């Protein structure tokens, strides 16, 4: 991986992401290390853990939460994803020739039921999901990670728009 635990940004992913990150405007003081905070956000998106239950290695949970909330509200995650996708495309790492059309990919009428037999075991280790992504380039894995964060940010916006306004 790079410097830390499973799921943290690798050194190669970090080097590709770092040039696109916003810099502190100086009004709010010095920001905590972007890499540590982003690793905390990725951990939360991957595991679904509550913000308050983030491991201490990501720093104060409230710092991680506030950075994610701020970047979700001001569109930073969306911009990061667009810039990383553009850089990956320029490097020839994105294949845009994938097309699926529901008019030609049809499911059989009996395909809606649940499985009867359990799925076959995949190697049996907790790290099996990491093995299947080892052949991805740092660009591809970084794009995939940012897509997950952007999806969560969009879900937040939808939930916020649908919730009634609170009165004090």
TrEMBL record:
Q: Name one Pfam family in it.
A: DUF4096
Q: Which residues form the Insertion element IS402-like domain?
A: 9-80
Q: Which NCBIfam families match?
A: transpos_IS5_3
User: Which protein are we looking at?
Assistant: Insertion element IS402-like domain-containing protein
Source organism: Kitasatospora saccharophila
Q: Output the lineage of the source organism.
A: Bacteria, Bacillati, Actinomycetota, Actinomycetes, Kitasatosporales
């Amino acid at each position: 991986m790079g410097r830390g635990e499973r799921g943290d940004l690798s050194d190669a992913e970090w080097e590709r992401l770092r040039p696109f990150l916003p810099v502190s405007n100086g009004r709010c003081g010095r920001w905590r290390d972007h890499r540590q905070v982003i690793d905390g956000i990725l951990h939360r998106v991957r595991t679904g853990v509550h913000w308050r239950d983030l491991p201490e290695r990501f720093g104060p949970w409230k710092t991680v939460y506030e950075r994610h909330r701020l970047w979700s509200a001001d569109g930073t995650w969306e911009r990061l994803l667009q810039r990383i996708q553009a850089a990956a495309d320029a490097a020839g790492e994105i294949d845009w020739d994938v097309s699926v059309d529901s008019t030609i990919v049809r499911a059989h009428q009996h395909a809606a039921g649940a499985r009867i037999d359990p799925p076959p075991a995949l190697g049996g280790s907790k790290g099996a999901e990491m093995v299947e992504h080892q052949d991805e380039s740092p660009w591809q894995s970084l794009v995939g990670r940012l897509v997950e964060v952007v999806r969560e940010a969009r879900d937040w916006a939808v939930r916020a728009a649908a919730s009634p306004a609170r009165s004090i």
